[in-house]
Specification:
single chain; about 300 residues; alpha+beta; D-amino Acid Aminotransferase, Chain A, domain 1; D-amino Acid Aminotransferase, Chain A, domain 2; nine-stranded mixed sheet; seven-stranded antiparallel sheet
C-alpha cells in the first residue's frame, strides 16, 4: 500500500491566522510542543460540508489548552470560521479536520512561560477508521499493556498530545498480535475505553458505559447517549469491571474517527453485532448528516 506522507500534499493549511500552502506549514525542531508535549488538538469530521458539533470541539480545544496552562490566541468563533475556510479552499465536503495548538520555540526547558502559542488547522479526506468489513462483523480487541492514569497523575480531561503516547504503543502491540485495537483499563483496573474511542456494553437490554473520570468524555459518546435515550434505550454510566464482559451481549466503540464501531471479540469473549448496536450505528450516521435531528434527540 502506497502511503502519502502528510507533509507532502497539495492544498492549504490554516496556520496562525492565514491560509498557507500545505508544504509550507512547518514548525522548528526545537518547538516546546515536540519536546515536552505541550500540545492539544481536536479530531473532527465534516459531513456534507458541515463539521459535526464544531462549536463543541473548539470549546473543548480551548478548555484543553487552559488545563495545560496556556491560552489559545483565537476565539472559538475565529477557529470555526478558519475550519470552514480550510474545507472550502481544499474543496472538501466529507473530511477529517484536525485543529492543533502548541507551544513554540522561544524557550527550551520544562518551564516555557514565554513561548508563543501556535494554532493550525488541516483537513483531508478520510474514510471510516475501520473498514466496512471490520465493522460488519465487529473488530477484535486485546487487553492494552498500559492503563489510563489517575487524575492525580496526568491532565486526563485535556485532549493533550502526551496522553496518546500509551495509546499508540498499545495499538501497535495489538496490531502486532493480529488485533485491531485495545481495551484500556484505568488505574484501578476498571474498563475505561479503547485507544482512541469510548466504549459501551449491552447487558440484558441496558447499555452501560464507564464514567469518564480519568479519560475524555467524548463528544460522540455524549451524542450516542442522547440518541439511545431518545429511542427508549436505557443508558447507565458506572464503574465496569473486566469480568463483566462474560455477561455482555453487544459491545461497540464511539468516537469522531470510529463513529459507532461494533466489537466482535475481546480476548476470548465474543459479541454479536446486534439490534441495539445496529440501531445506534444508523442513528448516528443519520445524525451527522442531519445535525438538527441530533440536537433534538
Amino acid at each position: 500500500m502506497s502511503i502519502i506522507p502528510f507533509d507532502d500534499r497539495d492544498g492549504v493549511i490554516w496556520f496562525d491566522g492565514a491560509l498557507i500552502p500545505w508544504r509550507e506549514a512547518r514548525l522548528h525542531i526545537l518547538s516546546h510542543g515536540l519536546h515536552y508535549a505541550s500540545c492539544v488538538f481536536e479530531g473532527e469530521r465534516a459531513y456534507n460540508g458541515a463539521i459535526f458539533k464544531m462549536d463543541e470541539h473548539h470549546r473543548r480545544l480551548h478548555a484543553s489548552a487552559n488545563i495545560l496552562g496556556f491560552e489559545i490566541p483565537y476565539t472559538v468563533e475565529q477557529i470555526n470560521a478558519a475550519s470552514m475556510a480550510v474545507l472550502r479552499e481544499n474543496g472538501l465536503v466529507d473530511a477529517y479536520v484536525r485543529p492543533v495548538a502548541w507551544r513554540g520555540s522561544e524557550m527550551m526547558g520544562v518551564s516555557a512561560q514565554e513561548t508563543r502559542i501556535h494554532v493550525a488547522i488541516a483537513a483531508w479526506p478520510w474514510p471510516s477508521y475501520f473498514s466496512p468489513e471490520m465493522r460488519a462483523k465487529g473488530i477484535r480487541l486485546m487487553r492494552a499493556p498500559y492503563r489510563r492514569p489517575s487524575p492525580e497523575c496526568a491532565p486526563v480531561h485535556s485532549k493533550a498530545a502526551g496522553l496518546y503516547m500509551i495509546c499508540t504503543m498499545s495499538k501497535h502491540a495489538a496490531e502486532a498480535k493480529g488485533y485491531h485495537d485495545c481495551l484500556m483499563l484505568d488505574y484501578r483496573g476498571r474498563i475505561a475505553e479503547a485507544t482512541g474511542a469510548n466504549i459501551f456494553l449491552l447487558q440484558d437490554g441496558v447499555l452501560h458505559t464507564p464514567i469518564p473520570d480519568c479519560f475524555l468524555d467524548g463528544i460522540t459518546r455524549r451524542t450516542v447517549i442522547e440518541l439511545a435515550r431518545a429511542r427508549g434505550i436505557e443508558v447507565v454510566e458506572r464503574a465496569i469491571l473486566p469480568e463483566e464482559l462474560a455477561n455482555t451481549s453487544e459491545v461497540f466503540l464511539t468516537g469522531t474517527a470510529a463513529e459507532v464501531t461494533p466489537v466482535g471479540e475481546i480476548e476470548g469473549h465474543t459479541f454479536k453485532v446486534g439490534e441495539v448496536t445496529r440501531t445506534l450505528m444508523d442513528a448516528y450516521a443519520n445524525a451527522v448528516r442531519n445535525p438538527a435531528e441530533a440536537s433534538a434527540a
